[in-house]
Predict the 3D structure of the following.
Amino acid sequence: MTTLDAGASPVPADGGPEPHAVRLEAAGTQPEGVIHEVGGLYGGRGWSAHATEHPFTYRYTAVGDAAVTLRRSRITGAIRGAIPHTDDYVVQWLTEGTGVPDVRQDRVPMRIGTPMLFPSDREFVFAYEDYDQRLVHLSRDLVHEVSAERFHTGQVTDLALDHLRELDAEAVARWRRQMTLLAQELRHGVGTLLWHTLTREAASAFLDLYPPAAPELPAVVLLPRKARLRAAVEFVHEHLDRPLSVADIADAAGLSIRAVQEAFQRDLDTTPMNYVRRVRLERVRIELHRSDPATTSVQDVARRWGFAHLGRFASEYLRAVGEYPRQTLRR
């Protein structure tokens, strides 16, 4: 049986339709079926599947809405393939079987019952066998909105989450309780006020599992009377990976160039462009800390964040971070 319709609407308790609901279901006994149906959901590339010592079967289900979906994937057999960058954060765990979410770079096997975040900010290649897997998809928009509220990260495109971090036991327990509440509320559909509340709480529980490493906004810009300065600083954080000028920052804040320069100097004790460099250095630190020294070059990371002269960059990094970039990379 196959039903792959993201627009399908489960009927809630009151009998009314829910136009934003998601309901997905796929099942079969042929390896080609799971490659086509489930691989298609993830934009999969180079997927392969085959039987093991048991007859091949698969079943994949998902229910929720655009913000959060609860999913289950079961395969008697082996499957492998690439998943590209996705618009969702995906937390998954096994209740049986074996799996390695990223066989090329991380090569960390799953432990039964232990959640692990997919490295969905890049392409990765997974390999699983004879498994029963639970997955929770959370939209980046929802997670980033809750992060901006809790951690003052602003409207950034990358929270710099560490998908391999050692999870806090209390955070895992809270996450599991939240998943139970979401599953219970699904009986009433996804159009309820409680569902909306629970999805935001799920995003908050997710951020307890994987706290953002993205630089926080300076405390002074959170004051109500600093709205224009906050707009300028948020623009910088959101566009760090793009060419920036003082004029760009001023335009984003609705200020003149002179006014934005004065605001940065008065409240942040720096110039707009020095602030840009400071936050880019922090992003370099985060990337080096998360990278594999066997496959990562300090020079490549520095260039990616706009630092051309390696010697001057290393000196500036040392002053800002307190160690040389190669030391961060080797930690």
Q: What stands out?
A: Confidence is low (pLDDT under 50) at residues 1-17. DSSP finds eleven helices and eight strands in the chain. The CA atoms of residues 281 and 317 lie 7 Å apart.
